Amino acid sequence: MSDLTGRSGRGLRALLWTARITGGLYVTILVFVIIANFLAASAEPAPKGREWLGLAMFPFGVLAAYALAFRWKLIGGAMALLCLLGWLVYVGFDADIIPIAAVVAMPGVLYLVHGCLARRQVRSEQDSGDPE
After folding, report:
1. Dihedral through CA 44, CA 49, CA 51, CA 56, nearest 10?
2. Is the entire prediction scored with pTM above 0.90?
3. In the Cβ-directed half-sphere of 94, how many Cα atoms lie within 13 Å?
4. What contacts 5, CB < 8 A, 6 or more positions away?
5. Taking the alpha carbons of 60, 63, 68, 73 in that order, is the dihedral positive or negative?
6. Helix orientation angle between 73-91 and 98-129, rounded to the nearest 10 degrees
7. What angle do CA 122, 66, 34 make, to 5 degrees?
8. What's the confidence (pLDDT) of residue 123?
9. Nearest C-alpha neighbor of 84 from the set 130, 132, 23, 28
10. How far apart are CA 110 and CA 93, in angstroms?
């Protein structure tokens, strides 16, 4: 762990940018899928009642969470993982969906790891800088 939180912080920055790039990629893909779905002339009826709950968690909740994570890593990462977990509960942990959810959850996990490591690094720097 010392190489991730070392003085240069290169590992911590790499972790952050990996989370940002993959999260940004998922945001882009989700936005395109949402736009394409609304623009496509489909015979499917509009979502009703309980279906909006599932849509609120995925894709809209995950989309909002990854957008928040650019600024607030811990909050955005936790929100993304909670939305995905809620969505998995909603759809019933289907074996076909779990691998997809795991891939989409990776930026959230990276944001959480980065946020925790950065917070620990700041605390250790404050502790070492305080003359007691």
Report:
1. 120
2. no
3. 7
4. 11, 12, 117, 120, 121, 124
5. positive
6. 160
7. 175
8. 85
9. 23
10. 23
Residue 10's closest CA among 116, 119, 114? Answer: 114
Q: Which of 121, 131, 127 is nearest to 7 (CA)?
A: 121
Integer Cα distance of 97 and 1 in angstroms: 33
| Cα distance between residue 42 and residue 112, in whole Å | 38
Q: Tokens 């790499």 sit at which residue? A: 14
Q: What are 16-26's pLDDT values in tens digits?
A: 999 999 999 99
CB 69 within 8 A of CB 76: yes
What size, in residues, is the chain? 132
| pLDDT tens column, 103-131 | 999 999 999 999 999 998 888 888 877 55
* 3-class SS letters over 78-90: HHHHHHHHHHHHH
74 contacts 44 by C-beta, under 8 angstroms? no
Please give the structure tokens belonging to residue 63: 């989309």
Provide the pLDDT for residue 45: 77
